[in-house]
Amino acid sequence: MYQRMPQLPTMNSVSQMIPRLRIPEAILDQTCEGYPTDPKSIEGQFKKITYPAPGHSPAKMYYKYGGSHFGTMADANRYAKAYRCDNLEFVVNQSIWFEGEAKFADVILPACTNFERWDIGETANSGGYSHHQFIQWNHRIITMQHKCIEPLGESKSDYQIFQELANRLGLGAPVTEGMTELEWCRRLFNASDLPKVTTWRRFLRKGYYVVPAPEAHNRAPVSYRWFAEGKKKNVPELSPLPSDYTETWREGLQTQSGKLEFESSSLKRYAPDDPERPTIPTHIPSWEGHHTKVLYEKYPLNLISPHPRYSFHTMFDAKDGVINDVKDHRILIDGYYYWIVRINSQDAARRGVKSNDLVTLTNDRGQVICAAQVTERIPPGTVHAFEGSAIYEPIGEPGASPDRGGCINLLTPSRNIIKRSHSTASNTCLVEVALFTEEVASFAKEVASSTKEVAA
Amino acid sequence: MKRWYMIIDVAKCENCNNCFLSCKDEHCGNDWPGYAAPQPLHSHRWMNIRRKERGEFPFIDVAYRPSPCMHCDDPPCQRAAENDAVVKRADGIVLIDPQKARGQKALVQACPYGAIWWNADEQLPQKCTFCAHLLDNGWRVPRCVQACPTGALSVQFLEAEAMQRLAEGQGLEVIARGDEPTHPSVYYRHLHRFQACFIAGSLAQEADGLSECVAGAVVKLYQDGTLLDTAVSDEFGDFKFDGLTPDSGRYSIEIEYRNQKQKEIEVLLEGDLSGSTGTIWL
Question: Closest to A322 (Cβ–Cβ): which among B28, B49, B53?
Fold first, then answer.
């Protein structure tokens, strides 16, 4: 409701968008395009946007929240180049951790942790564009996040930071409505059904409320049973919206045929001859893999970089936590916790690599220093290193030198899987692995010192 | 007198590290006077998860063995300790006294399991306490066992004879290390995943221009003319004989398919390496 009150500054009038993967192009080239997903309809994914939007200025200032680009975005050296480009006049970074990305900012606004601020929320429910995520848990918990200590050092909560900025812009009162974080928590509590089952006092003291399972007659029916039995849709999710049914509301699926489709009718209508996305799924040889002769001769190892097992993207990695000591997360060598690359014994032997050796992973996009783990769990010709390093620590010029933090995404391609859709292709990546030798190290040091001179 | 025992199922551990992390959570920055000084944030592994890979790609097996202090009945650390710094409690738990053990670095070397860690700041040898501070306050399991989501870690509180019967009945094993018997209180299930070798392979055939896995073939394992074991190839054509003694020499594998002997293949087990026949084309 509040977002619909146009006199309030929480209503954002700027509709122009930049795909996260195209932020570097938006800054470096001052133009990019994308296909954002509008989940209101199937056709919502086909709408092309361009940046800058008609009548808009290209961005001059970048306000960055956190520092996860280098660990999670493909061909991430692009971000270093964008940060250092003259097109970008001013960079603010608001983060808890002083990770590699924060160092690119002109102004750093230190944010406090969850332990230093009040909040209220529902466990495992992400909100935003995905509804009812808690159903994977089979129960719901509303949680009060207690402030355990006052924010350390100069740090402030995100709310306080925005409050201070709003005050300076003369917008303090309409943004905050004169309320503190804790008062907002209470307002949200009162707006929910919680007051019917508990009091603010009790909820605050207990810290959580477990929502009981609904009565049997109130529980949602089994997903898609209605479809299997040829009935009308009877599950509570919002989509598809009434206008997106081909024939009659609640009858059949969202596809144009209303049926499960092996050949996609929406693609037949939108782009029937797109060689990259045929209307029937087909195997298409990779553009960067064993079939790409020239590149494969130079970089003969296929790199796969799935989500990390012991951290969530860049969250929980590094930050001097004990996760660093998990043997399969990072390896401590000469006092530094290195990211791990897993390599088959045959590939390792051919390159003189043993377990716990420092190696470089290289291709035309960049170079990353990792600790090798020689293993039989990966087939010859393939190497495995998780994405999601929270540390970006180039040993020379940022964007142009090896990273010893372990940002594997410096190596992955930034192109979309297909041109006419926003999509990442991080697991389509060729590299070469070599021992990290003294020569490489001294070259990197040279680059580092020359960079310092330039900076000085 | 009942005593605490830990039973660790190697086949159920999948390296999630919840035990390792919960141990850190319980002991890092927390002083438990009389039980243990705080564990340093880094470098110690009171619960140490060891990995074992057997075989060569693609015929491999990976297993994890969480290894805490073994809480031995005859603890080598106690023999090495001065000033009664190591105590074997009546309930079986072995504790290093955080006051008396100060400066006794010899304890670290004394443990044949590598389960004692040196805290340089406190000048103190430290190790797993079985979370005795929790058990003495009514907890039924230590933190690591509580945090284990797969049931790989469990505890028993039993008379020694009852534990002996349980171990024999369920084929539990202890790990022998050092010159003299240590009689650990930590028992392992499926320890062959760590200590034994296997012979594996895969069966395939060409038919009508297609390569297909051969399922349902009978595979027999012989040594010196004696039939040791029989397996049937699965839907992927794979077969495996596990639990073989390392370095146990030459084996012969006989493959029968559609009631006819198809092939006989020799495999040698040398050192601690497992063996494979590779893909056998019938």
Answer: B28
Better pLDDT: A280 or A137: A280
- CB distance B181 to B1 below 8 Å: no
Name the percent of chain A lying above pLDDT 70. 91
* Dist. CA B237–CA B279, nearest whole Å: 9
Q: Which residues have CB under 8 Å from A1's CB, separation 6+?
A: none
Is the predicted pLDDT of residue A162 greater than 60, yes or no?
A: yes
- Interface check for A143 against chain B (CB to CB < 8 A): the answer is no
DSSP calls for A378-434: S-TTEEE--S--S---BSSSTTSS-BSS--GGGSS--S-SSTTS----TT--EEEEE
- Per mean pLDDT, which range of A124-138, A188-202, A345-359, A411-425 is the poorest? A124-138
Cβ distance A443 to A395 under 8 Å? no
Which helix (H) or strand (E) segment holds residue B132: the answer is: helix B132-135
CB atoms within 10 A of CB A20: 13
Q: Which of A227, A268, A225 is nearest to A250 (CA)?
A: A227
CA B55 to chain centre: 17
Alpha helices in A113-171 (DSSP H): 158-168
> For residue A247, what pLDDT is reported?
87
> Does B83 contact A at CB distance below 8 Å?
no
Determine the Cα–Cα distance for residues A341 and B202; give it in Å rounded to an integer.
29
Nearest to B60 among A323, A377, A380 (CB): A377
CB–CB of B21 and A378 under 8 A?
no
Interval A201-205 mean pLDDT: 97
* Each residue's pLDDT tens digit, A79-117: 999 999 999 999 999 999 998 899 999 999 999 999 999
Chain A interface mutation, best of B26, B42, B67, B279, highest count of A Cβ atoms under 10 Å: B42
Q: Tell me if residue B226 falls in helix, strand or coil.
A: strand
The alpha carbons of chain A give a radius of gyration, in whole angstroms, of: 25
> Could you say which of A322, A332, A378 has the minimum Cβ distance to residue B24?
A322
Which residues are CB-neighbours of A424 under 8 A, at least 6 positions away? A21, A74, A416, A417
Contact assignment for B21 to A326 by CB distance below 8 Å: yes
Within 8 A by CB and 6+ apart from B263, the residues are: B254, B255, B280, B282
- B20 → closest Cβ in A326, A332, A345: A326
Q: Do B58 and A379 touch (CB under 8 A)?
A: yes
Asked if A46 contacts A35 with a C-beta cutoff of 8 angstroms, the reply is yes
Does pLDDT of A314 surpass 50? yes
pLDDT of residue B178: 82
Q: Which residues of A touch B14 (CB under 8 A)?
A: none
Give A200's pLDDT tier (boundaries 50, 70, 90).
very high
Quick one: pLDDT at residue A236? 81
Where is pLDDT greater, at B35 or A5?
Answer: B35
- CB of B56 within 8 Å of a chain A CB? The answer is yes
Mutant choice from A323, A325, A377, A378 vs B, greatest count of B C-beta within 10 A: A325
Question: What was the pLDDT predicted at B68?
Answer: 98
In tens, the pLDDT along B87-117 reads 999 999 999 999 999 999 999 999 999 999 9
List of chain B residues with pLDDT < 70: none
Chain B residues close to A345, C-beta within 8 Å: 56-57
* SS3 assignment, position A216: helix
Nearest-neighbour CA in chain B from A333: distance (Å) = 12
